[in-house]
Amino acid sequence: MTTRWGIAGTGRMAASFAQDFPAADDAELVAVGSRRPESAQAFAREHGAARAHGSYRELLADPEVDVVYLATPHPQHHRLALAAVEAGKPLLVEKAFTATLAGAEQVVQAARAAGVFCMEAMWTRFQPAVVRARELVAEGAIGEVRAVQADLGAHRDFDPTDRLFSPELGGGATLDLGVYVINVAQQFLGTPSVVQAAGSTYPNGVDATVSYLLGYDDGRSASLVCSLESQTAGRSLVMGTEGHLELEPRFHHPASLVLRRHGREPEAMNLPPTGKGYSHEMDEVARCLAAGLTESPVMSLDDTLAVQAVMQTALDQLGVPVAEDTTLTV
């Protein structure tokens, strides 16, 4: 059965997501919504959507849309997600899930109370190489996991008018890139008991480069870094008592991984994504909806909240203010 999608937003992420529909299993883009009718119409023409809605409310009310992908800036996710839940519309929310932990908690509580499907669009978890890495860990291939290392950096010239650097639009390294490195730690280690962050900020106060040290009561740890000031390899290591796994650069959408076990030759595995890589999360949403699930067991809402809590703690320690957009008209 074809899953019919609507997209809220017409920016870069919306366009990237829309390009992957041909690679998904039985998915179709049928509608797009924007606050500007002309923007929705242009996006619909470019990406083959049948309908263009001049408001998010119209998109959420469209009976031909089975699920909505929220691709607006982070601080707008909170109000849009709550409106989607109120409309009974299943939703996939682009990362970071919200700008604040409190906002994420409100969305999760509302979705669970209403029994509406909701998932964070953490495409990394569904990449074939990452799926295989989880399987290898579960099989005991590297023994007991003790630590995770991950870096993700991109060099961007500071421009306070760009969304990446705008406090009002959720700019900064943590919400854009830190969400990835923290997520890989959450995936293989679980929720930390201690979070310590150190980093730099831009003149307007948003975070530029941040290092995170996550600690666990049993001695496990994660050492993570993200940056908008420096291009880094984008490597992730999952270290165990009998070896380690490397998700090769760039780990957030890898095409390969390497298993290195003590005393044995490395085992390289080539596992590229289908299309650009977004199709795998589309397929997961369709699978969950077909099974009547309101949450994904692969990208659970509990994990979303745990990652959001680490980001909130880190930003608080750095003195970086974040807030949800309370002015958005839905």
From TrEMBL:
Residues 131-246 form the GFO/IDH/MocA-like oxidoreductase domain. Pfam families: GFO_IDH_MocA, GFO_IDH_MocA_C3. GO terms for molecular function: nucleotide binding; oxidoreductase activity. Coiled coil: none annotated. Signal peptide: none annotated. It comes from the Bacteria. Keywords: Oxidoreductase. InterPro entries: Gfo/Idh/MocA-like_OxRdtase_N (IPR000683), Gfo/Idh/MocA_domain (IPR050984), GFO_IDH_MocA-like_dom (IPR055170), NAD(P)-bd_dom_sf (IPR036291). Belongs to the Gfo/Idh/MocA family. This is Gfo/Idh/MocA family oxidoreductase. The lineage of its organism: Bacteria, Bacillati, Actinomycetota, Actinomycetes, Propionibacteriales.
